[in-house]
């Protein structure tokens, strides 16, 4: 589980499939009001406090983005700080209220520390996933964005190959388009192989 601060009142967690499996949580469970999801959220808030000094009480908005075969991105936004009179009305279990929304991503986004890793990944993933994709440069890294309109088994194999050279990214394509530099906006895997193999 990784956490990063997005702003003064907003943080983002990346939960891998392993993080979820260790706790016996399925993606669908994030909608449900069950003890293991509460325990996961409490662990997340403890980590946010220890690593970032991010403390919550009162209303909290939680956005959950499911990434195909990669895990989840959870964005937590802190609401207004409750007044002392509000705190008197809350018992220990209700120090925050959750407003949860869930979205499914139809993309796989991997980041690579070096362009050479991206070239190697493209070479190995092309037989499985074809020539598609988009590549962006952002914060000294390269990002490969692939749409997931393929069979689940093919997608999982492709993700396994990409994981050998890079890591799943929690950055969205909207951020890459807005703040990054577009290297290839279509057929990226094919273009990489054409120029660098």
Automatic annotation (TrEMBL):
Organism of origin: Melghirimyces profundicolus
Xref: InterPro entries: MecA_C_sf (IPR038471), Neg-reg_MecA (IPR008681)
NCBIfam families: PRK02899.1
Similarity annotation: Belongs to the MecA family.
Any Pfam family: MecA
Protein name as it appears in the record: Adapter protein MecA 1/2
Signal peptide: none
